[in-house]
Amino acid sequence: MDEFAYKNGEMHVENVPLSSIVKDIGSPVYIYSTREMVNAYKSFSEAFNEHNAKICFAVKSNSNLAVINTFSKLGAGADVVSAGELERALTAGISAKNIVYSGVGKTNKEINAGLKAGIYQFNVESLVELRALSDIAVSRNVNAEVGIRINPDVDAETHQKISTGRKQDKFGINIDQASEAFAMASSLPGINPISIAVHIGSQLTDVAPFNDAFTHVANLTRKLRSEGIPISRLDLGGGLGVSYVGEKTPTPIDYASVVNSTLGDLSCELIFEPGRYLTAKAGILLTRIIYIKDNGLKRFVIIDAAMNDLLRPALYNAPHTIQQVTEPEESSELKNYDIVGPVCETGDTFLTDQPFSNLKSDELLAIRDTGAYGAVMSSTYNSRPLVPEVLVNHEDYALIRPRETLKEQLKRDRLAPWQ
Ligand code: LLP
Question: What is the pLDDT of residue 25?
Fold first, then answer.
């Protein structure tokens, strides 16, 4: 069920009218539904009920402590890619034993932080990283459980900037070199290579590329076992897509059936790293129309949210559905509008030539499906303050990150001593 629905002519999130949040917090503001996150988590985890599966929420999709804590309470682990995300996951209540650390460039400091915390698994992406991890583990007198991320050379058929499993992409170790990598890892002290990791991209709307990648992983598992490497865990990454503008997307059940048919007979523990699937639909960016101007060719709706608050449209040409908070009357006449932000770039455009019933200055709009890769990718470009975040649960809501003030923003700069 959609937790952002019209009731009595106004969009609500769960049982809270959006206008009451704006009255209190102002706009723009990110608003998340707890129930939507819980439902997404349950539908994902129930699809793998019959497996020995660990679901590690990809913190990069939404790293607010209150969001991570929501998943932690449901029993999720975390997939982290930096010391910052590791710190957030631990602070939000996720046990180190449920944390996997991915990423193509972990610094020595970050490896140390992971070892110190005692995380579940490091996913290593190069031979140099294997050596670095081994050296640091030995110096700390510990053993690290390691997955080697392979690059299966599979095209995820998603936006090219978020495709990660093709040979030309920077990620993982070429699958043809996997045997040597595992042999080397086995010979190094301080590391225990027991897992294959794979992640071919994000926002996959078809399961066929998963099928290809997991078939490669299954074949490699058998090969490595025959070479004496005891693979017992497979980390299958994230990537399950969501529908932004009506695209047909696979369900967790469709995805699980691909996992079963390709990897089901290997008796491995499975790790999943879903991000977008768990958070995208749970968030909106609530914004207010500042002005509407008609230049004869186009009607521009200038809103108080911009590309610095939600980068996805500018960076990936990603469309997000936008809805009026006040429910439009069914009979109302539609006109085409371009919805744009106030930042001084033409790329600061959310939608072009989209039909809406008569829009007005001061009206509230909801930019949908922005719970994943929304707030986390925001910046202060044009010296705009970082947007606040609100979490809703039934009829309650709470500020989970206050709006940055200009004073706070300016305080981060300082003049050089000679000025
Ligand atoms: N695991 C690894 C190793 C990853 O690199 C990612 C995402 C995930 C898991 C989670 O993938 P998800 O389930 O969310 O698809 N900023 C882009 C998305 C970048 C994804 C990067 N890696 C966007 O806004 O579309």
Answer: 98
What distance in angstroms lies between residue 373's CA and the mean position of ligand 1's atoms? Answer: 8
Q: Is residue 203 part of a domain?
A: yes
Distance (Å, rounded) from C-alpha 337 to C-alpha 79?
A: 40
Residue 225 sits in a domain whose CATH number is 3.20.20.10
Domain membership of residue 417 (yes or no) is: no
Question: What's the CATH code of the domain at 350?
Answer: 2.40.37.10
pLDDT in tens, 162-172: 888 888 888 89
CA of 258 to the centre of ligand 1 (A): 20
Kindly calculate the radius of gyration of the chain based on its CA atoms and give it in whole angstroms. 23
Provide residues with CB under 6 Å of ligand 1: 58, 60-61, 79, 102, 162, 199, 202-203, 237-240, 273-277, 312, 316, 372-373
> Catalytic: 56?
no
User: Residue 8's domain spans which residues?
Assistant: 4-31+280-411
Tell me 384's DSSP state.
P
Q: pTM for the whole thing?
A: 0.97
SS3 101: strand
Q: Which residue in 198, 270, 204 sits closest to 234, CA to CA?
A: 270
Residue 382 covered by a domain: yes
How does DSSP assign 67-91, residue by residue? Answer: HHHHHHHTT-EEEE-SHHHHHHHHH
pLDDT in tens, 248-287: 999 999 999 999 999 999 999 999 999 999 999 999 999 9
- The residue from 230, 249, 279 where one domain ends is 279
Domain count of the fold of the chain: 2
Q: Hey, what amino acid is at 259?
A: V
Q: Which pLDDT does position 332 carry in this prediction?
A: 82
Q: What is the largest CA-CA distance in the chain?
A: 72
Residue in the block written with tokens 């929420």: 57
What is the distance, to the nearest Å, from the Cα of residue 122 to the centroid of all Cα atoms in its chain? Answer: 19
397, part of any domain:
yes
